[in-house]
Specification:
There is one protein chain. The protein is of the alpha/beta class and 342 residues long. The chain folds into 3 domains: 158 residues, HAD superfamily/HAD-like (Rossmann fold), CATH 3.40.50.1000; 117 residues, Calcium-transporting ATPase, cytoplasmic domain N; 52 residues. The protein is 47% helix and 20% strand. It is built from 14 helices and 13 strands.
Amino acid sequence: MHFIKFLRSETNLLSLKLIIRGGEHLQKAGKITTIVLDKTGTITKGEPEVTDIVAFGDFTEDEILKIAGIAEKNSEHPLGQAIVNKAKEKFKILEDPEKFEAIPGYGICIMINEKEFYIGNRRLMDKQNIDVTSIEDKVTELESQGKTAMILASRDSVYGIIAVADTVKSDSAKAIKELHAMGIEVYMITGDNKRTAEAIAKQVGIKNVLAEVLPEHKAEEVMKLQKMGKVVAMVGDGINDAPALATADVGIAIGTGTDVAIETSDITLISGNLMGIVTAIKLSKATMRNIYQNLFWAFVYNTIGIPFAAMGLLTPAIAGGAMAFSSVSVVSNALRLRRFRE
């Protein structure tokens, strides 16, 4: 009979814009104590735009934009795509670089006209021993506004900064507030620097921020929380979120994200609306509550019926009727899940 409850829950999922891959994941969702949300494409829309171009030295703003556009031409990252889109508005055609090297979690190295350029975060500049102290104040100013500042430099010079900002989804703050009300801890995880991450987290009411986390280290952060005894759900939309989704007790993918993330997850939010997380947890608890109710009444039926049967006070006809009534009541109670709403 427990299968009936899960079946009723799962047949109601499409109307709730959820895909849950099996009853065990539906059951586990109600036990979640901690949720880790990826920033880009999960909390934010994943549709960033270039907001600032700051030139230093010999290069103009347009030259900085063109070099950055060439560097990010083949990037699949939303921030890179924002730069490419802006560059194409201005230059229409972007040539291929003579050399291209992606450095995950840091940035990109390219060569144009036999000159090497780096575009990325401060960690990339530190990694390449490029001094950026002269632009530190401007980078800090942009980051404090919740923007991601990417630095364009060569081995011997810093040429400029391109700032990109993403918009927070309209439902993010509401969903996070409801999760807090349910007693669930919420973390935000991102590769952004701490200042930018905290500015975004503040907008949606998140206090726990895991910043400057390289893509390959997201799963490790999930495991750290699990070792603290927490039941962890990871929510993400990108290829680099897949290991963390697989590591978490419950992996939740954004339906508008990559196929890899969706295939790895246990639950998919079809619309990408974070309120779907709240819905999935509430549905899990409603389903388990329904099961416990039916177990209770089954126990009551048997507690009353067995002694009467042992004393010969129940005829086969009455016993069969009682069993049928028990089954009908269980199924009827399970059918109430059809009326579950967000």
